[in-house]
Specification:
The complex is a heterodimer of chains A (441) and B (162). With 441 residues, chain A is of the alpha+beta class. Chain A has 14 helices and 13 strands. Helix content of chain B is 35%, strand content 17%. Classes of the chains: A alpha+beta (441), B alpha/beta (162).
């Protein structure tokens, strides 16, 4: 094939990020294929230096407006690890519930607002109000439930207030449990309708074997908040060794570091979790996986969206069970804590290093803090999922482009856009994610 | 005051035609002039004719609340970059909202307005305020604050109970 293609995909989003897709094919040979991340460094690790470990989660939750709860949980976990604080079983369950709500909220946003327009043949979410009115309304209803539950649970629907090192400053009361339970059981019909919609969607066919990375454990729980690090290539290590897994390295075309583990790249996120831990999903989620034809190991990155829907069902059902358990046995309100910046020494402080590893919507998130004997952060390191996926997206692009050279520019553009979107990169307003510009074809 | 307030807006804010008007403000107070909407909401006085909801950066989450109020008119107030002078107020056509809305909400306002139109049968309007800055800071620019004050005074005066 003697085709020449030069693709410059430049996109402009809001302040959260910028990136470009660059593809250059000369005489049918792929010469360049990159995902440029040109986002400015944000210096959160620098901002953390000198700050109290007890305020770290309020700072790091601002890394992301979508994954604010995930960053909070990773931050709190790292803080507790450094201080040697062991959270109670009740605290762990409430945190798990919080993470479920954020994952569901984020996944629904991705499924309905970012992916559905491509699959339903429209340019963005806006035209769907005319053509798929009930779908839009359902999306809004479902997202609102997640927001409202987060609001009740942690005081705000983003940037949680009450989730801190040691536990929660405010625990939900009986009426709060009732409200949340009503919200979530009321969500079931909409979740079923989402599944019906998903059955009708056709995803692009593209497979590439890669290494899938996430939390793993030896018990029956679908690991989101705790466990070791594992991969489909057989890696298994403690979270303390996360740097041996991520192996971050710098590439000249990206302000996000790339990562790799056993091979050229690895993937994190819903599909990785599904591939690693599908047997531990809630039975209803497993049933949905079966209905949607998802059988591990799934190597089509476009199906990350389907894995997200499966996780939505898991999160919904597991959350309802957690709430029902709390309704049955009640909450121990003596565990409500007032820590502030630990001015009263409620929590003993010591120097140390702590690591948080949490499965947030886009994959495993690491926070590592070194603190001094006053509890001030000396060093911090945050490795976010989208950063870990960048290299894998690029490898996918390199494998995909030669397979679709016969397609039109418009088709290639759409497939490339959809591939990047499939990873649900954490960039605000990604509904307008890629403004494609072909040059020299 | 801009021509908008002198003309169309004056008519828009005449409550006699409608029994209930709902103002929904949108914006982020931590993004300088993007906080114009919440700033205005905090100063508006609700009355038997006027209801106010500050939707912050999630207007989609106030749909149910808005529908329950059964308004005859809904007016969104939001920072909007339409290339005007800082503080300028403009009645914005619904077709232009996605291009000019500056608020940090992720749900496009036209989607929310369409649902509200369908569910309430209300007439929906957008008032855009040209920001001077949407940097990460609190407080409005003097230009936007001055326009907001005029808008607040106008609305409170026109909708006050007898």
């Amino acid at each position: 094939m003697s085709k020449n293609i030069k693709v410059n995909v430049e996109y402009l989003t809001r302040v959260e990020g910028h990136g470009n897709i660059v593809v250059n094919v000369k005489n049918g040979k792929l010469e360049e294929c990159r995902l440029d991340i040109v986002e400015s460094p944000r210096f959160f690790e620098g901002m953390l230096r000198g700050r109290s470990i007890f305020e770290a989660q309020h700072i790091t939750s601002r890394i992301c407006g979508i994954c604010a709860c995930g960053h909070t949980l990773a931050s709190v976990q790292a803080g507790e690890d450094a201080l040697g604080v062991l959270p109670s079983e009740q605290t762990i369950k409430l945190r798990k519930f919080l993470l479920h709500m954020e994952n569901m909220d984020s996944h629904l946003l991705h499924i309905y607002l970012l992916v559905a327009p491509d699959l339903l043949g429209v340019k963005s979410f806006v035209p769907l109000i005319e053509t798929h009115n009930t779908v839009v309304r359902r999306a809004l209803r479902m997202k609102k439930v997640c927001n409202d539950v987060c609001d009740i649970l942690v005081g705000r629907h983003v940037h949680p207030i009450s989730c801190i090192v040691g536990g929660f400053t405010k625990l939900p009361r009986e009426k709060d449990l009732d409200r949340m339970l009503n919200f979530l059981t009321g969500l079931r019909p909409d979740m079923e309708a989402t599944l019906e919609l998903a059955k009708t969607l056709k995803f692009p066919q593209f497979n590439r074997e890669t290494e899938y990375v996430g939390l793993v454990n030896d018990n029956g729980e679908y690991p989101m908040l705790s466990g070791d690090l594992g991969s489909t290539d057989g890696l298994k290590m403690s979270k303390k060794d996360y740097r041996k897994l991520t192996n971050e390295f710098v590439v000249s075309h990206s302000s996000a570091k790339h990562t790799k583990a056993s091979r050229d790249s690895y993937a994190v996120g819903a599909l990785a979790r599904f591939n690693l831990n599908h047997g531990k999903l809630h039975p209803k989620a497993k049933e949905v996986a079966k209905v949607l034809g998802m059988k591990p190991t799934v190597t089509n990155p476009y199906l990350n969206t389907v894995a997200q829907l499966i996780e939505c069902v898991h999160s919904l059902e597991d959350s309802i069970e957690i709430l029902q358990e709390f309704k049955g046995k009640g909450l121990d309100y003596s565990q409500e804590i007032v820590v502030g910046l630990n001015e009263r020494g409620t929590i003993p402080v010591k120097a140390g290093i702590g690591i948080g590893a949490v499965e947030v919507p886009r994959g495993i998130l690491f926070h590592e803090y070194e603190i001094d004997k006053q509890g001030k952060i000396v060093n911090a390191n945050c490795v976010i999922p989208t950063g870990q996926n960048c290299n894998n997206i690029e490898q996918d692009m390199k494998a995909l482009v030669p397979q679709i050279l016969e397609k039109s520019q418009e088709e290639i553009t759409l497939l490339m856009e959809m591939l990047v979107r499939a990873y649900d990169p954490c960039i605000s307003c990604s509904a307008h994610f890629l403004n494609v510009k072909f040059v020299g074809r | 005051m801009s021509n908008l307030l002198a003309g169309k807006l004056a008519d828009l804010l005449t409550p006699q035609e409608f029994s209930r008007t709902l103002i929904i403000t949108v914006g982020n107070s931590f993004r300088a002039d993007d906080g114009a909407g919440p700033y205005i909401a905090s100063a508006l006085k609700q009355s038997s004719k006027l209801f106010v909801i500050d939707a912050g950066y999630t207007p989609e989450n106030v749909i149910d609340q808005a529908v329950k109020l059964a308004p005859g008119v809904i007016i969104f107030i939001d920072a909007a970059d339409f290339g005007g002078a800082p503080g300028e107020l403009r009645l914005i056509d619904t077709g232009h909202i996605p291009q000019v809305s500056l608020s940090t909400h992720s749900m496009p306002l036209p989607v929310v307005s369409k649902i509200l139109e369908e569910d309430t049968k209300a007439k929906v309007y957008f008032i855009g305020i040209q920001p001077k800055s949407v940097a990460h800071q609190e407080g409005l620019s003097s230009e936007v604050e001055a326009s907001a004050a005029v808008l607040i005074q106008q609305i409170n005066e026109r909708f006050k109970d007898a």
